[in-house]
Amino acid sequence: MAEGSVLGGGDAVVRAELLTKAGCNPTLVVVRKLRWGTPILEERPMLLVEADSQFYLKAPGADARLEELAVAMGDSCRLAAYIAFKQLHGRKQKELLRMWREGLEENDELARAVHAANRQSVDEFIKDEPELSKLIYWDHFLFVASILGRFGIVNPDGSKAVYAMCSHIRHSCRPNAALVTTQRGFPRGKQVLHVIGLDGIDRGEEITVSSVDEGVLTLPGARRGVQVLAKTGLVCTCPRCAESVGTVARDNRITALISELRTALAMQPPTDDSTEEARQCIHELDNSLPFSMQLKAKAKLLLAAARGELMQYAAWRPEETVAASVVQWTGLDSKEQREILLDTKQLYDTAAKDFECLLGQGAASILKRLEASYRPIRDQHKMLVRYARERDSEQRSCEDFANHKKAAGPIHQLHPTSLKLPPKALPPSWDELFGSRTPVRY
Fold first, then answer.
1. Strand pairing partners for 28?
2. Does residue 196 lie in a domain region?
3. In sequence order, which residues have a C-beta less than 8 Å from that of residue 20 and are 6 or more positions away?
4. Of the residues 125, 141, 162, which one is the last residue of a structural domain?
5. Contact, 89 vs 116, CB < 8 A?
6. What is the mean pLDDT of residues 238-267?
7. In sequence order, what E strands does 371-442 have?
8. CA distances from 392 to 8, 335, 342, 381, 428 (A)
9. pLDDT over 70 at 233, yes or no
10. In this structure, is residue 173 part of a structural domain?
11. How far, in Å, CA of 352 to CA of 296, rounded?
């Protein structure tokens, strides 16, 4: 029988719940189908331990014997975690201790190993240093150290925190979500979770994240498994690692695609063939690795820049003389140009969303730089859409006029006010389309 929980360390959780089944570790699942890029939850830490343990040992009013205890133990980190725990409200302390639920060690190999190691070190210390054993409550020390060791998440600033929900998210080599720690604002250590699965997450589906660097996810299965084990302490059993048929061929293909993508994007000047090859590589990578990645986001931006360069080339026809090369682009196929601009605009949009979901507040500087490159593409697309709309309106008006003329007889029989035609919709000039940039000459 499943038991759902929506406790989130004081934050309201709208799109996820913690699901606990008998004999299984809790898992975080979504409460309804979520699309790519959707925020899942924001959660503040239950326990936050500063990276520098001296923050607690030398704090104003701190017991001077605690520093002596840390020296005797030879481990100030776990003692700092215990002190941070004791500073919590009593209700928060009980909530944290409940994370080490009954039967956890039986179902969780890592929890069992962490608890056994902490128990052994505590027993040995109490035996060797009985005069210091009365300074702290060792049962709480043991559980806090074990909870932090099993469920703690290391933040970018080096602090370590435990979360009521986010700490239960499991690793997957095919993650459908990304967990990012906010770097500014209150409270410190707040986690933000976004959907990065390209197909979204179905209702009731488990939320998974990657606990390793992005580059590890592109490695072949055996090498990837070694890296995951070193990082998480667990053998990865995600669906991707559990697959047995065709895994070697798929892994080799991923490696080849990344190499082909880099080669295509490095082509200078870009060509139609190189940009098309890059587009196909990104599309195939989306099928093989169906989740947002910085690697693919950067590739999208490079591809968008290459297409923008090609569009400038296309706006000017090479002629034998320099004077003849300065022509308006009115002879180009506006429908084709509109499609290229729309595709390029989508590359910028999706890349920006990738960075936002994967980096959180850290993406602000990247998004600011993207805006400068994105604005001309957006303006060009709007202008072409407007031109196409005016052209279609003119065509419809001409057709209406022809039908009216056919139904009403000779033109001299029509009333003068019925002959009003819209002004001719001219294609935008170079200055309108590309601003003041100098046209490309061959």
1. 18
2. yes
3. 2, 3, 5, 26
4. 162
5. no
6. 92
7. none
8. 54, 12, 18, 16, 15
9. yes
10. yes
11. 11
Q: What values do phi and psi take at 208, rounded to 5?
A: -130, 150
Q: Are residues 65 and 199 in the same domain?
A: no
pLDDT of residue 21: 78
End-to-end CA distance of the chain: 72
Strand partners, 41: 193
Domain total in the chain:
3
Instruction: Return the structure tokens found at 231.
Output: 């990082």
Average pLDDT over residues 258-266: 95
Question: Rounded CA gap, 302 and 95, in Å?
Answer: 48
Closest C-alpha among 314, 342, 321, 251 to residue 288: 251
The CATH number covering residue 29 comes to 2.170.270.10
Query: Closest by alpha carbon to 207, among 314, 83, 291?
Result: 291
Q: How confident is the model at residue 401 (pLDDT cuts 50, 70, 90)?
A: low
Q: Please give the single-letter amino acid code of residue 23.
A: G
Note whether residue 281 is domain-resident: no
Its pTM stands at 0.77
DSSP codes joined into one string, 58-79: TSTT--HHHHHHHHHHT-HHHH
User: Do 385 and 441 fall into the same domain?
Assistant: yes
> For residue 277, is it within any domain?
no
* List of residues 6+ apart from 428 with CB closer than 8 A: 383, 384, 387
Tens-digit pLDDT profile for residues 172-182 = 999 999 999 98
Query: Which tokens in the block code for residue 87?
Result: 């500073």
How far apart CA 350 and CA 399 sit, in angstroms, is 40
Predicted confidence (pLDDT) per residue in 386-396, tens digit: 766 776 676 77
**Mean per-residue pLDDT, 208-214:** 94
Domain limits for position 30:
3-45+165-216
Same domain, yes or no, for 351 and 436? Answer: yes
How many other C-beta atoms are found inside a 10 Å radius of the C-beta of residue 64?
8
Alpha-carbon span 425 to 428, nearest angstrom: 9
Matching residue, tokens 């939850």: 41
CA distance 171 to 231: 10
